[in-house]
Amino acid sequence: MAKREVLNSEITRSLLSGRTNNAIDDFLNYYKSSKRSQSSYRSGVNKLLLDDLAKEAHEITFADYMKVMPQNKNQRTPQDTYKEMFIKFLFVFDYLEDPRGFSSIWIKEDIIKGFTDRTELKKRNIVTKNVSDSLTVPELTAIQKVLDKDFTKLELQKMDFCWYMLFQEGCIVEELKEIKSENLVNGVIITNTGDEYIIPSRFYPMFEKLNERESGYTGFYTVNTLIAELGEMAKLERRLTPMIIKKTRNSSMVKCCNCGETYWNTINNWVAVNSRLVCVSCAEEIKKKLNFDHHIINIPNQEFTSISREHEINLSSVLYSYNELKKRIKSKPIDYLKLHELQIEIGKLGEAFVYEKECEKLKGTKYEGKIDNKKAIDPKNGYDILSFDINGKPIYIEVKATAGIEDRFYLSNHEYQTAEKMKENNMNYAIYFVKEVMSDNPKLIKIHDIIDNEEYNFEEMNWKVTRV
After folding, report:
1. Which site in 133, 283, 326, 375 is 20 to 30 Å from 126, CA atoms measured?
2. What does the alpha-carbon distance between residue 197 and residue 434 come to, in Å, rounded to a whole number?
3. Residue 320, Cβ neighbours under 10 Å: how many?
4. Measured in whole angstroms, how far is the alpha carbon of residue 348 from the centre of its chain?
């Protein structure tokens, strides 16, 4: 591939979320016949997402399809064909958040058979567990590690609630989508189907925040997006969906062979009696009834840490609000051996501050919910936050922060190259420099062209030398 094409490909990928890029990669795995066809497919998909719709792949609806696709097949161009193939792929393999309407024109089973016959699905790199398999123990543990954090951001609290309702309570998606803040009365939610759920008190503050919002709709209609983002935060290698959660719930329930009741497969619910598993409530009863020797063993627990300290720090600006994150940093005793770690957390504090400022700027606009502060988790992006101006033009923000008043920050070589590439392609790459970030009044400086800016000088840093 030519250097120019590689550059364009990298820039295009940076405009799309990780979920969308994964969907595109999976789609292209079905059509590996030639470089020319791969280029044509990718061109059609890019035009669909970036030009025609300006949407992520999972946000495409049936109305979007009808808008961009000529209904007279004789009027369709080759690119139209590639666009339809991509949307059909998203529909078949459950990438779409709102698939309503597509079943009126396509039969999913027939399309799946066509895909399988044409490409010999098992020989491809598409991981079929993306569609239907339940979560593995490492995946489930990684998700639980994320949810065990006492995060303070509203969207994260909504994510936790959606997981609780789907996994713990077995609530169906359509029920969950219709739940609004006013449905919580005296700790109980009654859904539109008449089902009652007792809600843990940890969710009460979330419902209070939802009631305070100016927007008239405070429900959980974006459950699919929230669940998918939870999977991304847990670093799952596949897209997390409500269907996967439902299957995981079903596979995680075990029936006691003595009483016939069903319980979670966690060790606190089970005891081994003469090498047979029974529920805890049955164990004492069996002990009294047995007229011969019995041997009761509590099942030992074995815990594994699935999220590294580095990943935990990277998640900090995503999990916590600016004020809460600042409080956490101030409460830590100074340990100069961990100064580098503190500097990283200062950077994450700056990201939390900028994210909240961008939310304030776009409050009440359709772009407020599209601000993406999870870009910082992956340093390969070369920027920390994807935001927008009031007209919807993307702003790629690299956040720099300091606890002091100095007018100095550091750019990595990758960040500098990203700024150069985006400038060449007329994209808005900006440095948001936060000074005195630990104070009550941090100062935010916005630098929209760091490459050709006479107010700032660049100094070459010394080589880092390590003994081998």
Report:
1. 375
2. 44
3. 22
4. 18
Phi-psi region of 277 (alpha: psi -120 to 50; beta: other; left: phi over 0): beta
CB contact at 8 A, 15 and 50: yes
Task: Find out whether 420 and 458 touch, Cβ atoms under 8 Å.
Answer: no
Q: At what angle do helices 242-251 and 223-233 cross, to 10 degrees?
A: 70
Query: What pLDDT score does 148 carry?
Result: 84
User: DSSP labels for 205-230?
Assistant: HHHHHHHH-SSS--S-TTHHHHHHHH
Residue 220 has φ and ψ, to the nearest 5°, of -115, 40
The type of residue at 18 is G
Backbone angles phi, psi at 294, to 5 degrees: -130, 155
Pull the structure tokens for residue 183: 């449905």
Contact 158, 226 (CB under 8 A): yes
Contact 360, 332 (CB under 8 A): no
What is the three-class DSSP state of 428?
strand
CB 315 within 8 A of CB 344: no
Token pair in block for residue 43: 């061109």
- DSSP assignment letter at 111: H
CA angle 46-376-423, nearest 5°?
55
Number of CB atoms found within 10 A of residue 307's CB: 19
| 344 vs 350: CA distance, rounded Å | 10
pLDDT in tens, 111-148: 665 554 444 444 444 444 444 578 888 888 889 888 88
Sign of the alpha-carbon torsion through 198, 203, 208, 214: negative
Contact 399, 385 (CB under 8 A): yes
The DSSP-derived string for 130-149 is GTSPPPPHHHHHHHHHHHTS
Q: How far is CA 211 from the centre of its chain?
A: 25
Dist CA 272 CA 201 (whole Å):
34
Nearest to 234 by CA among 226, 243, 224, 222: 226
Tokens (6 digits) for 19: 């979920």
> What stretches in the chain show pLDDT beneath 50?
1-7, 116-131, 302-307, 309, 313, 336-337, 339
